[in-house]
């Protein structure tokens, strides 16, 4: 276990004092363990002197794009969704004082569940529970999308059109700012996307809803949805497209997954079964699902192009990650997006 006095991103003494002042029942001193890091927000397990556990979230150290790591956005969504029936961890306290540990952060309930980050992690979930976990993934997403955004204090435009177009404009601009070799293909796909945008289904869009951001119990019930850093009010169908773009099936060697695909471990529903389950639970039309999967593959490639560029220019430091593996991922995602749009 790393020395909690020197753990990256945490001023142990200052954070301990702040937690003692702001979290009811907290008893110092505390131990801090990094449990999720890398290129997203950082998550720490905090254990106080009484053995009580909580989680703490803060941006990456040395983040190059602060707007992509807005902790107040995460906090507002988790706080607003608590009590709606959509499973989220209980929020405990938010800190905007950068003198404490150099960035905004917040504390929340620690959910000790099964997180299926990759195929190896899928082995933690019993085979007989995987079908139910798949159903839960569809049902909980439908429940999130059924919420009336006008009754919730969450950030994001209440516009009922234009979400996809704004997303395409944003990600195209980020790619063009660094001009990788794939720029022409990115722009070509972007134009096809904006030329044929389906009618928007407005609601809360999580932005990174996938099985790896869900915590399950051993029976396959969802305990909490994590990682709300990209959440906004937008097109609900984009969430379904993203989840399915990450949902590989056993034996698929050519599936262009946008991220790790634990569902290839077996026992899970197929993409079609998940989509149909979601449609039945939400009442939403999924006839244009291929469009949303294409959009998310394209968006995933844009994100990876940004990650690759930051490694190439040394902005990510030397963390041992071989960013050259992204070349194949990016190429596969862009090719699959074009194929999806071709019908």
N-end to C-end Cα span = 50 Å
Which class best fits the helix and strand makeup? Answer: alpha+beta
Architecture per CATH nomenclature, i.e. the level-2 architecture of the largest domain: Alpha-Beta Complex
Order of helices and strands: HEEEHEHEEHHHHEEEEHHHH
Indicate the CATH class of the largest domain. Alpha Beta
The name of the CATH topology of the largest domain is Aminoglycoside 3'-phosphotransferase, Chain: A, domain 2
Oligomer designation: single chain
Q: Strand order across the biggest sheet?
A: 1-2-3-5-4
**Number of beta strands:** 10
Name the poorly predicted regions. 63-67
Cα-based radius of gyration, to the nearest Å: 20 Å
Number of domains: 2
The number of helical segments is 11
Residues in helix, %: 40-55%
CATH superfamily of the largest domain: Aminoglycoside phosphotransferase (APH), C-terminal lobe
The major sheet is characterized as: 5 strands, antiparallel
Strand content: 5-15%
Round the mean pLDDT to the nearest integer and report it: 91
General shape? globular
Can you put this structure into words, describing what you see?
This protein has 343 residues and is α+β, with helices and mostly antiparallel strands. The chain folds into two domains: 12-109, 2-Layer Sandwich (Phosphorylase Kinase, domain 1); 114-342, Aminoglycoside phosphotransferase (APH), C-terminal lobe (Aminoglycoside 3'-phosphotransferase, Chain: A, domain 2, Alpha-Beta Complex), CATH 3.90.1200. The protein is 40% helix and 13% strand. The protein contains eleven helices and ten strands. It has helices spanning 12-22, 71-81, 98-101, 119-122, 130-145, 163-178, 183-195, 236-245, 271-282, 289-312, 326-342; strands spanning 31-36, 42-47, 53-58, 91-95, 105-109, 114-115, 202-205, 214-216, 222-225, 232-235. Strands 1-2-3-5-4 form a five-stranded antiparallel β-sheet, sandwiched between helices. The chain has a three-stranded antiparallel β-sheet with strand order 6-8-9, with helices on one face. Strand 2 and strand 3 form a beta hairpin. Helix 6 runs antiparallel to helix 7, helix 7 runs antiparallel to helix 10 (289-312) and helix 7 runs parallel beside helix 11 (326-342). It is globular and about 60 Å long. Mean pLDDT is 91; it is low at 63-67.
């Amino acid at each position: 276990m790393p020395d909690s006095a020197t753990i990256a991103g945490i001023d142990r003494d200052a954070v301990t004092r702040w937690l003692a002042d702001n979290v009811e029942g907290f008893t110092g001193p505390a131990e801090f363990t990094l449990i999720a890091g890398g290129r997203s927000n950082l998550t720490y397990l905090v254990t106080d002197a009484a053995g009580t556990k909580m989680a703490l979230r803060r941006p990456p150290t040395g983040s190059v794009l602060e707007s992509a790591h807005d902790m107040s956005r995460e906090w507002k969504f988790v706080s607003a969704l608590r009590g709606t029936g959509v499973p989220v961890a209980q929020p405990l306290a938010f800190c905007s004082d950068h003198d404490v540990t150099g960035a905004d952060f917040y504390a929340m309930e620690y959910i000790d569940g099964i997180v299926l980050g990759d195929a190896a992690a899928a082995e933690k979930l019993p085979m007989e529970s995987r079908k139910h976990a798949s159903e839960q993934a569809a049902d909980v997403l439908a429940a999130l999308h059924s919420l009336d955004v006008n009754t919730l204090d969450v950030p994001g435009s209440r516009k009922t059109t234009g979400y996809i177009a704004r997303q395409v404009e944003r990600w195209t601009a980020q790619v063009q700012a660094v001009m990788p070799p794939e720029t022409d293909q990115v722009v070509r796909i972007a134009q096809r996307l904006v030329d044929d945008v389906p009618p928007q289904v407005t609601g809360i869009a999580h932005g990174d809803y996938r099985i790896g951001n869900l915590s399950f119990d051993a029976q396959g019930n969802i305990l909490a949805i994590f990682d709300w850093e990209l959440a906004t009010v937008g097109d609900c169908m984009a969430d379904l497209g993203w989840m399915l773009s990450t949902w590989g099936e056993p034996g698929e060697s050519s599936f262009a997954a946008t991220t790790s695909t634990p569902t290839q471990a077996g026992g899970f529903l197929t993409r079609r079964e998940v989509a149909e389950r979601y449609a039945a639970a939400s009442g939403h039309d999924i006839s244009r699902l291929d469009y949303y999967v294409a959009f998310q593959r394209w968006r995933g490639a844009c994100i990876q192009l940004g990650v690759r560029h930051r490694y190439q220019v040394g902005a990510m430091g030397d963390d041992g990650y071989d960013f050259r593996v992204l070349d194949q991922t990016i190429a596969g995602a862009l090719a699959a997006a074009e194929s999806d749009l071709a019908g």
